Fold this sequence. Notes:
By secondary structure, the chain is mainly α. The protein has a domain of 53 residues. 64% of the residues lie in helices and 0% in strands. The protein contains three helices and no strands. It starts with 12 loop residues before the first helix and ends in a 5-residue tail after the last helix. 0% of the residues are buried.
Amino acid sequence: MTQDTDFSSQGSERTRNPRGGPQSELAQALQELAKGEQTATALENNLSSLESKIDALLASFEEQERSQTRHAAGNPPSDADGNGAEAESTGEKNS
Length: 95
């Protein structure tokens, strides 16, 4: 039994591709790339936001630790003007 194969009927990749050819594949690849870039940008923005929140939490914890350390050492916490135990003990405060 012999098998007749007509290689000329197969044609090139361009004619066999049911999606419309290499230009269509390139267009689809570029669309997927653009979508991936948008996703990456969104992830970067979310990570930046998360990083800011973590930094704020860390600063809060560090301030609590400093406050507890001052309290344990017998020094009252500083007021908003930066006057702490020294200004109160001398009776001086910036107004």
